[in-house]
């Protein structure tokens, strides 16, 4: 439905976007996720038509729209600041973009949209009489009223307090699915991106680092940056020593690294919640098996986080690395006594991923 081809943008000597390419299907909800300054807002502004790229093109349903003005593109846009007209009623704000329609039609369409966002009874009020969350719902109704081909959301929830933000996430997603409107949202909040999107585009230094479903990004991050930005991950420098086997410190680990060549250095990634812990029994320490790597470790610290407890573990065999594990809290939220001193740390082979360049991309290069 939307195709972005090799967009580049410089401001002076700074290269802000470097060869962005992205295809979006009809009805998809895509998040552009990345840290401050990675270029996501610039990309959204280029899509809106309020900024021009230095090179590359944008195609909507096969038509090249790169040279079209923002007003000709007719995209719905919602900004972080609600940008409502303070001197117009809520209904008049929503009707604002419906200039081509007759007045009565404008009004009934505005009421219909306000009904969709649950604000039909607030139509007569002025923006200053509404809460932040309500104002953002009005902005959403206004953006959707002219039935735009594409909805662009620029950090739409970041000005709201935490509770409103979470409930509006669900509301925006429900509405987007109901209307089947193709949507791109800029955010720096990973929870927001993971919970709302069909696919997430992770951006870093003006480039796309990885594109995938929330589940793909979480379970198979392609790089150290994605692993660190989307959730938490233990990172272990390693050397591939055989098929699905890598050495960390003095320890060989079974892991899920099919695509890596023997002899190549790589970074292994392991989520804290994938790690199992058992009591350590002297002389009963099992060695690594093909499915589970069992290693002795010392508990350095435990931090209670509510739904889980974070443990920092020192593992001599892994070259003295500090590994973080997360244990789900029990009913009474107390930790077993054996979680002091020495424990047996179990690292499931299938959860240990390779994060450096896989063999296939090296071959392609
Ligand atoms: N009009 C401009 N003139 C010069 N530099 C700009 C301009 N707009 C953006 N930049 C620079 O381009 C880089 C990317 O900015 P952009 O706003 O796209 O990042 P972002 O990922 O959206 O960050 P944030 O989340 O902080 O908004 C930044 O270093 C910014 O300072």
From TrEMBL:
SMART domains referenced in this protein's UniProt entry, alphabetically: AAA
Cited InterPro entries: AAA+_ATPase, ABC_SmlMolc_Importer, ABC_transporter-like_ATP-bd, ABC_transporter-like_CS, Mo/tungstate-bd_C_term_dom, P-loop_NTPase
Domain of life: Bacteria
Segments traversing the membrane: none
Domain ABC transporter intervals: 2-230
Keyword Oxidoreductase annotated: no
Gene3D superfamilies in UniProt: 2.40.50.100, P-loop containing nucleotide triphosphate hydrolases (3.40.50.300)
Keyword terms: ATP-binding, Cell inner membrane, Cell membrane, Membrane, Nucleotide-binding, Translocase, Transport
GO MF terms held by the record: ATP binding
Secreted in keyword set: no
UniProt feature coiled coil, ranges: none
Protein name per Swiss-Prot or TrEMBL: ATP-binding cassette domain-containing protein
Organism: Roseateles albus
Source organism phylogeny: Bacteria, Pseudomonadati, Pseudomonadota, Betaproteobacteria, Burkholderiales
